[in-house]
Predict the 3D structure of the following.
Amino acid sequence: MSSTEMNSSKTLLSLSHVSRHFDNGPEKLQILDDVNLDITKGETVAIIGPSGSGKSTLLYLMGLLDRPSVGSVTFDGQSLEKATDRQRSKLRNADFGFIYQFHHLLPEFTAFENVLMPALIGGKSNKESKARAIELLDKVGLSHRHDHYPAELSGGEQQRVAVARALLNQPKLLLADEPTGNLDAASADKVFDLFTEMVKESDAAVIVVTHNPELAAKCDKIYRIESGKLFKAEKVAKKASKKAAKKAPAKKAPAKKTATKKTTKKAKA
Ligand SMILES: Nc1ncnc2c1ncn2[C@@H]1O[C@H](COP(=O)(O)OP(=O)(O)O)[C@@H](O)[C@H]1O
Ligand SMILES: [Mg+2]
């Protein structure tokens, strides 16, 4: 393993000329076509694009759950082309956190046990990891739900348990695939802010696939997938104006803000 000093680069994950196709009988389905992307430590990145455009496929590649047809993936200075499946899953368990649209909590385990699951799976369930699970449950505002089973929690609460679980091993990279797709606007906002802020605290990076432009706009960068290609998307001015508004609440004109769906959506929460 390279020491932090050796790997002084701020690049955490790098995709170089990555393509992915699937064979569909004689037909070749080209899903990703020559994708190049560098993810820097500490940054939050949103991936957007129409349904079926390859967002999940890209996330699987970045999460070492799949291998590119062409091209290479480098994580924390380590090229993964020649890594065995075993080495990849070890790395995944140690350094990656995953959040999905559906929480995938295990129904027969309590909130606490679900959060502890990555440590149980990694054979590292000890005093320390248990203390961290308790702390994380507290951070996501669910310490009072410690012994509750998933079925006894609301959708937003279940997803907050999933966030705590994804962060148990202090991942260097958090990958989230439409993590708020199943939540109402208020819960979506809360869950999104929770994991982006918690990850930022540890200088980890976040890659989040989302259909929600307001959440995407909160990220440092936005990329769009279209016809297999990855493009850097322009960020809407919204974030900047929001920040400015916070700094100088008296002066910044809300007049500049373009009308958004937020107000109507918020009403539902
Ligand atoms: N294992 C697979 N075999 C064949 N086609 C696949 C496979 N995985 C994904 N696809 C196809 O790739 C395209 C992109 O899928 P996906 O990455 O899930 O899209 P998104 O997440 O953007 O909605 C879809 O047309 C899907 O059917
Ligand atoms: Mg998808």
Remarks:
- Residues 1-6, 239-245, 247-269 have pLDDT under 50 and may be disordered.
- Residues 22, 29, 31, 49, 51-57 surround adenosine-5'-diphosphate (ligand 1) (CB under 6 Å).
